[in-house]
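Subject: Sanity check before I submit

Could someone independently write out the structure tokens for this chain? I want to compare against mine line by line before I put it in a report. The sequence has 254 residues.
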Amino acid sequence: MNRQNARPPSLSLYLTGEQPCSYLPGRQARSLFVDPLARMDGSRYRWLLAQGFRRSGRFIYRPACRGCRRCVAVRIPVSAFTPDRAQRRCAQRNADLHLVRLPAVFLPEHFVLYRAYLAARHPDGEMAEGDAEDFQRFLLDPWGGDTELFELRLRERLIAVAITDVVPGGLSAIYTFFDPGELDRSPGTFALLNQVAEARRRGLDHVYLGFWIEDCRKMRYKEHFRPLEAWDGLAWRRYERSEPIPTPPDGAGR
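---
Independent answer below. Compare away.
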């Protein structure tokens, strides 16, 4: 058996109570969490990613909503990915930016950019009022594996930061924030193109994107990266550029 696909020792899982869904108004959400006290490393986390889990801070989880499976875990197969016309234009617009790779350390410059991004893009979100400690807990908390920061800079000026986990065989795109004054550059798209390019440079198989939600506009950008693989609860299914990604209907709960 491929060691990357080997099932890790048993892990305890915990189901949260229901709370209002932050993506789909009027719905209730709940999550299945891995025991936060369990020993974690890149190999274990990689196996969990391959089962549709996601990391936020020290917590690794996947949605387990009653009667709803709208959150679909997706990943990019790196060797097969081909940018579309809009993505090629995005790369051309950003040819003057350069990539800087850093370990997961707190830098005040990053926090200032993060606050500006939230104020412009998510002013009503619960993270908008967070302080530097909240920022570090959300994005920089040690979890047992490797996290890198991919900066995009215009000469010395910081344009974007992509928080990226590194696991055997892949990268996981955790969170990206950018200068809200640079929207014409589509910096989020360019940051993800850089993550795919970095995965290819390292000989990795996948870039994990978290959850695609058809009915949530801010999560739909992921469907433009093709081919895209989606987790259906049992296996990963590949969808080419011309193929719609199916969303399980209401009532198909976990």
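---
OP: Matches mine. For the report I'm noting this point. The helical segments are 42-49, 85-93, 108-121, 132-139, 187-201.
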